[in-house]
Amino acid sequence: MNGGHEVSWRFPGLGRRGVSPALTELQRIAELERKIGQLTMENDFLKKALEHFRDHHLPAVVSGEAACLRKSGKPRPKAKP
Questions:
Q1: What is the distance between the alpha carbons of residues 64 and 2, in angstroms, rounded to a whole number?
Q2: What distance in Å separates the CA atoms of residue 63 and residue 34, rounded to the nearest whole number?
Q3: pTM for the full model?
Q4: What is the pLDDT of residues 31-57, one digit of tens each?
Q5: Which of 4-13, 45-54, 56-65, 72-81 has the highest average model confidence (pLDDT)?
Q6: pLDDT for residue 22
Q7: Separation in Å, CA 8 to CA 1, 23, 41
Q8: Rounded (10°) CA dihedral 26, 30, 32, 38
Q9: What ranges do the domains of the chain cover?
Q10: Are the CB atoms for 37 and 45 separated by under 8 Å?
């Protein structure tokens, strides 16, 4: 026994033996809390990246209609008969 909890040993093919349900629940809670922290950090990073992108990059097309209807300065090659 270790601090009132049984020690868990894992062997390939045998799984866990001698793990108390309370210890398993505490481990699962700790795992989920770590995952929440990880996802929070990822979310904060992505929010900052999106803000940076919006502040520093111009849109590729301002107006689709204006871009499609405007003629370019280059002459078009004539079709061969």
A1: 69
A2: 45
A3: 0.46
A4: 999 999 999 999 999 999 999 988 887
A5: 45-54
A6: 87
A7: 10, 9, 31
A8: 180
A9: 9-57
A10: no
